[in-house]
Amino acid sequence: MKALIQRVKNAKVTVNDEVISSIEQGACVLIGICSSDTIKDMEYIVRKLLSIRIFDDENHKRWQKSIVDKQFEILCVSQFTLYNTWKGNKPDFHKAMAADRSKEFYEQFIQMLRDKYKPDKVKDGLFGAYMQVSIQNDGPVTLEIESPSHTPNKIINSVTDGAVHTKDEHSKR
User: Which residue among 6, 55, 72, 79 is the active-site one?
Assistant: First the structure.
């Protein structure tokens, strides 16, 4: 599971020229769901979204406060295109969870986020719709989080002349 986090002054989602969701200061978060994601991936992303320190404190010291600390809002938008690969010049989305499964998974994610924070501070887009997402990026700051099950672990392959050579754990299969 991936979360592309954009620190914002405000953000909104529009479908067919109608604003369906909007927030003031906080984060606009694009959510990518992989075909192999589980509840553990969901829990990890929720925990990180609520605890990462991406805001200044009252003394303007950077990277000191979380969304929860500041009581800011979150606007989540489902975006399967975050799990793309390339076939030549054309994007391929076979790594993304299929729409029939991902809709329920995404709805569970939004509910978990609301349960762990404040329901009225968590907004979302319209799953599966063609949306326009407007943001006023603050910084700009854009950060990515990916659940550990999708982050290849490095393993030591060899040590030569004092240099450590690693390879992705996934490449040993």
Answer: 79
Global pTM? 0.85
Task: Identify the pLDDT of residue 169.
Answer: 46
79 is catalytic: yes
DSSP state of 53: -
Given the residues 81, 85, 111, 136, select the one marked as catalytic.
81
Question: Is 38 marked active-site?
Answer: no
Mean pLDDT over each residue of the chain, to the nearest integer: 90
Closest CA relative to residue 83, chosen from 146, 129, 7, 126: 146
Is 151 a residue of the active site? no
Residues 47, 28: Cα–Cα separation, whole Å: 16
Confidence of residue 154 (pLDDT cuts 50, 70, 90): very low
Which token pair is 23? 């927030």
